[in-house]
Amino acid sequence: GRRKLLSHRADHAQVKLEWSLIALWGMGLYASSELDRGKIPLERMSMAGVLRAFRRVARDDLHSADRRWTLCIQIRTALMDQYERHAKDSRDYTRKKQEHPASPPTIKTATAQERKRLQLLTGERQQTQKG
Q: In 3-state terms, what secondary structure has residue 79?
């Protein structure tokens, strides 16, 4: 598509706009009848896909590689997907980790079993360092 109507005179631009709308309406009408024949609900029709199908056929009409890929088939596949989109509000939300200040350490006295284990470990270390 075009974003601007290029014409030397304003009335010519108006005529181009009207014919573009008539062509778009005609493509939509043809596509809706084709979808109706294929028992596809009209709510799923993608007008952008229909335009792509018409452009592809107009461009590749003389030397199409696959004759089975007709305009009818292309229109029947020019559908909007059924995926439900969700809001993108939180997409750019900063998720910095909120670090809490360190709490004071909890000190407890070692039990008899823990002291015994410590003596065993330190004794083993001293023997390995000597040997």
A: strand
